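re: ur question from earlier - yeah i can do the single chain one, its not a big deal. heres the input i used so u can compare w yours
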Amino acid sequence: MVTSGRVVFGKMDEVVFGKPAAEAVAEQARRLDANRVFLMVSGTLNRETDEIEKVRRALGNHCVGIFASMPPHTPRHAVIAAAEQAREAGADLIATIGGGSITDGAKTVQLCLANNIRTPEALDDYRPIKLPDGTMGPPPCNAPTVRQITVPTTLSAGEFSAISGVTDERTRIKELFRHPTIIPRAVMLDPAITVHTPEWLWLSTGIRAVDHCVEGICSSEAHPFADAQALRGLTLLTQGLNRVKADPTNLQARLDCQLGSWLSMGPLASGVPMGASHGIGYVLGAVFDIPHGHTSCIMLPAVMRWNKSANAERQALVAAAMGHPGEDAGDVLDAFIAGLGMPRSLGAVNVSPENFSRISEQAMGTPWVPRNPRRIDGPAQVLEILALAA
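and the output i got, formated as tokens:
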């Protein structure tokens, strides 16, 4: 654990939980004096439920448009399409209702609107740069003025960060765009709207949030502020996910999962890096189109086992928070993931060993693999982790 550091609080105003999404969105629009609200929403929710219509009715004539076609992994072309639609609508607020790809898409739309970004290629100029203090941040650019509010329907928790993951279709690499003001101004956690989320998606993104907690706790750069949130978040998530698996109508369990997901971002939001599970997961998602929840289900136990020689004491905190003090954390996680019925190997998602060299080389270029708690000097060590997950 580090003995000195700095925690920077983000530009989010508030988190509202337990209130119906339509009511919460309309209240936030009034609070922010928004007159032209542009919706970016789940296509499935829009087509197959009345949840989006409820939001539109609650906003009345303040709703000026809707974008409901964001693909997984947030490809650049879809971000540009959404930005153009929001620009034409004269939006003064973006409200998202859906999963992480939609949330991240809207974050980048904010940058596009503020900087007149109109082509996928133009995003090249907004990739993060190293700042004077050594951290990564945005290049000189206009700060967003059309901000975002978010109703998440999965548990990946990207709504609690000022980072957006967007896939460059030319390279099939997921890149991270950063700006302090792309974090949503408000997040509204409505457990009732999540009953429409497919079980596999809810549970697997829950493991993504577990991954945030675990890699934060196990980081060599961990600190007490982050630990306090991640350890409590891990307990809420693991207990809540089991209860939702047993009874999908249990709204209190769903809310516990949402609160755990929020807490899971404590480490990342306060400067603690993620590790190899996240880094390798970025490559698996961008190159092989594997959902990020599934990448965490597959990679996290393997990374824990590979890292144990470097952070056994921190891993013991993970096992205890999951209700298994004294047991091997990698084994506890593996059994928990199996109990939820999630994939647990690369073979289960059709990623074969002949792809491992490409994965390992690309993973070295992610922000997280070089900051893994057990040092990773090159692709050969990533190959060792992939072999454990094969």
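The longest strand covers residues 93-98. not sure if urs matches, ping me
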